[in-house]
Design brief:
The chain has 411 residues and is mainly beta. The protein folds into two domains: 318 residues, Beta Barrel (L,D-transpeptidase catalytic domain-like); 63 residues, no CATH class. Strands 10, 11, 12, 13, 14, 15, 16, 17, 18 and 19 form a ten-stranded mixed beta sheet that branches. The longest helix is centred in the C-terminal third of the chain and has 10 residues. The protein is globular.
């Protein structure tokens, strides 16, 4: 199905220049226990714009990739998904966020339907979770409606089943509310790298392993919904589902939470911890419990939790590629029989030891080629591992045919 782009058809009519953008409530999750004015005289017609999977110019992907709209503003939707530009990422994490507020009690657990036309009886094209999920406002109409876009927060029981699809639709303007996020902390989740990047006071503080949602044919709603969100307080805390225990849970999108990697009453962390760094959850974001060199883990995030911390989730668009680290960047090891390479000269996995530095470019040469990656301090992947991921995400491929089939069945 093509996306729809509105275009002017009456040349004699006067309208305001439209700035447009380029580049999950009522939800349910198995990990979870519930707890610019536009001149109204303009005539428009619909033009179908087919979705494209071509790599964008310069290979730069943004969260609004495939959107038919363009935007000159700097925001989550237009920022290239590149964690190396710390200043730009921090500016985005602390920028105001526009959410939907329907005025209901416990609104953060409710959703508003986006409509194909500015009419309450029009077809639903997506859903947005109130209070916590950010919207990209494209235009405000004089008739009380606004055109917005977001990744549809479609859960199993949502009104519109468009699993994590980037959609554009209409919402009553009265629902729109701008919120200033916390200015001291922010979080980025990248579904391509399966990493959490924790920012504090303008700097990247820590990189953590995560697991986002893994889709199966019966549960296409397991896909973790991308977009910008706010952490909601009071936090959920620990919960148990069967023999799976999830600690330090904080809600950000109705049934979607960030929480510590689950452990079980029988096997401890041995079942779920080895899956960190790859998709494995039912939609929530599982976060490592082992402390990074800066002391950060899910428990640290819990202890430092604040209301309205912005958490953004980057989509793993087909065609995105993970860049190699610089060859002269430092990694570390213990020359006296160490089996792992590390991201810093100290690590909580070996208290009291100080490691020796070598360069990333030497990692595949002796005596470093047999070193394994430490699962505590999240050092960079080897080039061969990056190549393997990039091959799956190469332009023209399909890294998730199950989700593609489920979406096509809805059209």
């Amino acid at each position: 199905m093509g996306q729809r782009k509105r275009r002017r058809v009456a040349a004699a009519l006067v309208c305001t220049v439209l700035w447009i953008v380029s580049a999950s409530a009522g939800g349910w999750d198995e990990d979870v226990i519930w707890e610019d004015d536009l001149d109204s005289s303009v005539v428009w017609e619909d033009e179908v714009i087919e979705n494209t999977t071509a790599v964008p110019a310069g290979g730069v992907f943004t969260p609004s990739y495939t959107s038919p709209y363009t935007d000159e503003a700097k925001n989550y939707w237009t920022l290239p998904m590149d964690i190396r530009d710390e200043a730009a990422v921090w500016e985005m994490l602390t920028a105001p966020i526009t959410v939907a507020d329907n005025g209901k009690k416990n609104a953060e657990k409710t959703q508003v339907t986006l409509r194909a036309q500015p009419d309450e009886n029009s077809e639903g094209v997506g859903v947005v979770t109130c209070i916590s999920q950010g919207l990209h406002v494209l235009e405000n109409l004089e008739n009380g409606w606004s055109l917005v876009e977001c990744y549809s927060s479609s859960f199993r029981d949502s009104e519109v089943s468009r699993w994590n699809m980037l959609v554009q639709g209409y919402i009553p303007t009265r629902y729109l509310k701008q919120t200033r996020p916390d200015q001291t902390m922010g979080i980025v989740i990248d579904k391509l790298t399966q990493r959490m990047y924790v920012f504090k006071e303008g700097k990247l503080l820590a990189t953590l392993l995560v697991s986002t949602g893994l889709v199966n044919k019966k549960q296409p709603w397991n896909e973790t919904r991308s977009g910008e969100f706010l952490l909601m307080l009071p936090a959920v805390g620990g919960f148990q589902d069967g023999n799976m225990i999830c600690s330090y849970a904080i809600r950000y999108n109705s049934g979607d939470l960030i929480h510590e990697v689950p452990h079980s009453t029988t096997s401890g962390y041995s079942t779920y911890e080895p899956k960190l760094g790859e998709k494995a959850s039912h939609g929530c974001i599982r976060v490592q419990r082992r402390r990074t060199p800066s002391g950060v883990n899910m428990e640290w995030i819990w202890e430092n939790r604040k209301s309205n911390v912005k958490i953004v989730i980057w989509e793993d668009w087909q065609g995105r590629q993970i860049p190699y680290p610089e060859d002269d960047s430092a990694v570390y090891y213990n020359p006296k029989g160490g089996e792992y390479y590390h991201s810093a000269e100290t690590c909580y996995c070996a208290k009291g030891k100080t490691f020796t530095a070598f360069t990333y470019g030497e990692l595949d040469s002796e005596p470093y080629s047999k070193l394994r990656r430490c699962s505590w301090c999240t050092p960079p992947l080897r080039k061969s591992e990056i190549d393997e991921i990039n091959a799956v995400y190469a332009a023209g491929g399909d890294h998730d045919p199950i989700l593609t089939e489920a979406r096509e069945a809805l059209e």
